[in-house]
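Sample entry was shown:
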Amino acid sequence: MSTMKVLGTSKFGRNHLTFSTNHPKPIPTKSTELLIKIHYTDLNPVDHHKLNMKPDGTPTPSHRTPFIVGYGGSGVVESISPDADEECSELLNKRVCFLADPSRDGSYAQYIVVDRRVVTAIPDGVSLHSAACIPVAGVTALESLAKVGLPVVDETNNTLTPSSSSGDKHRLLIVGGAGGVGSWATILAQATYG
């Protein structure tokens, strides 16, 4: 069995992260799964919250030990499952950024298996380093704008633009607009509503 390095914990709470060098390397088994060699992972408040959900040192569930957080990042698609669909095949060996599945091992590892539906190819000119910061903050901003009635895409997932949006003027105050989510919310709202 092939192994990898991970940063995880066996106990919730502060100061329990441990480095492991013999964690099983994941294998894509479903037709929509990709194995990504991680180059960069992001660090978000959700990682801290997950690690401290039980601050008293409660052991992590045995099926998730070590408990590996990290919900987004970037890397290169290294392999796909034998019955991979065409969209997976097109991503093989491509530079990508991704969202991790919270019910599986996270991105504080050398490798991760993710569903291709939460992966996108990184355009030329965008570094792996920069792309790793996009998934969690960008999707959170996208969802937040939709929740306040300012969607960035319509019901059929077509991107809205100032000329295709309703034409009504919208006002939006983004408190903390300098952070990851706030920065993306500002960019997306400006691009969509002008």
Remarks:
- The first helix runs from residue 45 to 51.
